[in-house]
Amino acid sequence: MSVIQPKEVRTWKDELRDVLTKYVRDPFKDRIDEYLGFLDTLYDKWWNGDVKTREYYAYHMALLMAKSDKPNVIKAKLNSYYAYLVYRGYVSAYRLMKDKYVAGGESIYTWLRMYRKVIG
């Protein structure tokens, strides 16, 4: 009788960590674990917040949780990470755009608005 080994269960945060580790360029790789911890707070406040805010930002959260390798999903995940760096004051949005880490300001300002609305 053979014993079947259970498969490793991967969460959406494991998938997100893999994407960020693969695509985030130096010198910004050192804040990935901190960002993933921030997402716990963001998710809790988003889910337990008012219904209107939860519905408005549902698509954003779905993008973060998506298990997809489509370019638009990967870009959204990267933009959310870079927006976190701006939110925490580690880097300016201007530098991210000037050095071409993000395509344009709107790509991170959408996430910044979410962070400010949900967390404050």
What's the SSE blueprint?
Blueprint: H1 12-23, H2 32-48, H3 51-56, H4 58-65, H5 71-88, H6 93-98, H7 105-118
Number of DSSP strand runs:
0
Kindly state the percentage of residues in helix.
Answer: 55-70%
Tell me the number of structural domains: 1
What percentage of amino acids are in beta strands?
under 5%
Gyration radius over CA:
16 Å
Shape: globular
Class from helix and strand fractions: mainly alpha
Distance between the termini: 57 Å
Main sheet makeup: none
Element string (H = helix, E = strand): HHHHHHH
Rounded average pLDDT: 90
Low-pLDDT regions: none
Your description of this structure?
The chain has 120 residues and is an all-alpha fold. It has one domain. It is 68% helix and 0% strand. The protein has seven helices and no strands. It has helices spanning 12-23, 32-48, 51-56, 58-65, 71-88, 93-98, 105-118. Helix 1 crosses helix 5 (71-88) and helix 5 (71-88) packs across helix 7 (105-118). The longest helix is centred in the middle third of the chain and has 18 residues, at 71-88.
